[in-house]
Amino acid sequence: MTPKQIGLVGTTWDKVVPIAETAADLFYGKLFELDPTLKPMFKNDLKQQGRKLMTMINTVVKSLDNLDALVPQIKASGARHVAYGVKDEHYNTVAQALLWTLAQGLGDAFTDEVKEAWTAAYTILSETMIAGAKDAA
């Protein structure tokens, strides 16, 4: 990611944080709309899961300029997700739901440039998680 992309992700994330609970609700609603077969993977309270998701995204966003330090944690998360039934193709569905959610939350601030920056960030995250899943297998 370029420094400009890192900056765009950070500044737009700062606009999502105040509406994090709503964003999480939108995300899971869209995720299950895109692929209803994913819903049984979420056995816990979705509000709690949404808070975990927002915390994880926040951690990644705040660490984009030093992601190497997070790689072991991200890989471990990918390995854990295998046990939940997550497959490589699910990451694309998550990307669609995330980008849609950001578009809803940011409105006009979700420009093509912002979308590209978030896509780059998510690609790094998902590829690292997939690598962690493969390492565990």
What features would you describe in this structure?
This protein is an all-alpha fold and 137 residues long. It has one domain (3-136): Orthogonal Bundle (Globin-like). Helix content is 74%, strand content 0%. Helix 5 runs antiparallel to helix 6 (112-136). The two termini are 28 Å apart. The relative contact order is 0.19.
In short:
The protein has 137 residues and is mostly helical.
What attributes characterize this protein structure?
mainly alpha, 6 helices, 137 residues, globular, Globin-like
The CATH topology comes to Globin-like
- Mean pLDDT, to the nearest integer, reads 95
Q: What is the structural class?
A: mainly alpha
Mass-distribution shape: globular
What is the domain total for the residues? 1
List the quaternary state of the chains.
Answer: single chain
Total strands: 0
CATH superfamily: Globins
- Contiguous helical run count: 6
Largest sheet: none
Range of helix content: over 70%
Radius of gyration (CA) equals 14 Å
Order of helices and strands: HHHHHH
Low-pLDDT ranges: none
- How far apart the termini lie comes to 28 Å
Sequence-ordered SSE layout with sheet pairings:
Blueprint: H1 3-16, H2 20-34, H3 46-62, H4 71-83, H5 90-106, H6 112-136
Helix pairs in contact: 1-6, 2-3, 2-5, 4-6, 5-6
